[in-house]
Amino acid sequence: MTRYARYVRALTAAVLGAILTGCGGGGSGPAPAAAPSGSASSAVRSGDAARAGDAAPARSSPSPRPDAVAGPPTLAPGPGGLAPVFTRGAPDAGKTVALTFDADMTADQGPRAASGERFDNPSLIALLRRLDVPSTVFMTGRWAEEYPAQAKEIGNDPLFEIANHSYSHYAFTADCYGLPVIGEQRAASDVRRAFTAFREAGARNVVPYFRFPGGCYDKAALRALAPTGVTAVQWDVVSGDAFATDADAVAEQVLAGVKPGSLVVLHCTRSAAPVTEDAIRRIVPELRERGYRFVKVSTLMRKTGR
Question: What's the rounded Cα separation, in Å, for the pair 98 and 262?
């Protein structure tokens, strides 16, 4: 009876463990801000992933669940533990390019939205879907609160991923295009507040990447960002679409700057970037004609070793 009792207890524990594991697969995944911590962010979350291209890194478990997927890659912390910065993919990654779109909305712009100003651009998102262009949207938490249905729709479409563009769109350095300054003490909480806004909107495809408002940062900003565990993502091609009125000029600037592994910054706010959609209509087919393939930032980062 003693041996049989041990057997029953062991069998019960195994069944209970399997049930709990299965329940875990139905949630929304780990909190994005906590993903790149400890050894998980040593290098581009595995050299194997970089060599394997789009394939997910092999798991150590001998029998992973069928729905198991690898998390997004991240970079190791910089010198002194500063937040790492990713600017472009490795040229030897082939003709891949990442188009990124900033969904800007500053914390104090609510009255402007209430009066009819549009900080969204759903027709641009629809165009990216029709053209089948994987993209990364760097969204502010305030934008997600203003347009929660769109944030959820974007964040649950596998064609897209949502990255963090701060909650308030306040600058992390002084003298940054006239933006209000967040201050070093509030920086980390501002980033975490944005992740909370994405989660509350129901977005699931959220990656632990961050783009500084205005692209402005220094060592102090990287130090303030470090506790959030994100990888800062910049760019090597400036589209010039912000406040532009000539779509062809925007397209020509992008087409002239793209190289293998490029990361392009654009915007998806109608009031601040009214010609971006028309520029995309030219950019996408011309780059495809040149042999380029569009990827999200997570794919571009996975393909590079730096």
Answer: 6
d(CA 273, CA 267): 6
Q: Burial level of 48, CB count in 10 A (0-12/13-18/19+)?
A: exposed
Token pair in block for residue 239: 């589209």
How far is residue 15's CA from residue 157's CA, in Å, rounded to a whole number?
34
pLDDT digits (tens, 9 = 90+) for 110-132: 999 999 999 999 999 999 999 99
Give the angle 263-265-267 at the CA atoms, nearest 5°.
150
CB atoms closer than 10 angstroms to residue 263: 24
Structure token pair of residue 300: 């571009």
User: Rounded to 5 degrees, what angle do the CA atoms 232, 238, 241 make?
Assistant: 115
Q: Quote the CA–CA distance of 30 and 302 in Å, as a whole number.
A: 19
Name residue, tokens 């980390």: 188
The model's pLDDT over 124-175, given as tens digits with 9 standing for 90+, comes to: 999 999 999 999 999 999 999 999 999 999 999 999 999 999 999 999 999 9
β-pairing verdict for 160-164 and 206-210: parallel
Task: Mention every residue, 6+ apart, whose C-beta is less than 8 A from residue 30.
Answer: 71
pLDDT in the model for residue 70 = 59
Task: Select from 250, 286, 299 the least CA-distant residue to 90.
Answer: 299
Cα-only R_g, the chain? 21
3 state SS of 96: strand
Q: pLDDT per residue over 202-218, tens digit each?
A: 999 999 999 999 999 99
Given a contact cutoff of 8 angstroms between Cβ atoms, the answer to whether 290 and 123 are in contact is no
**Residue 41 in contact with residue 229, Cβ under 8 Å?**
yes
8 A C-beta contact, residue 261 and residue 89:
yes
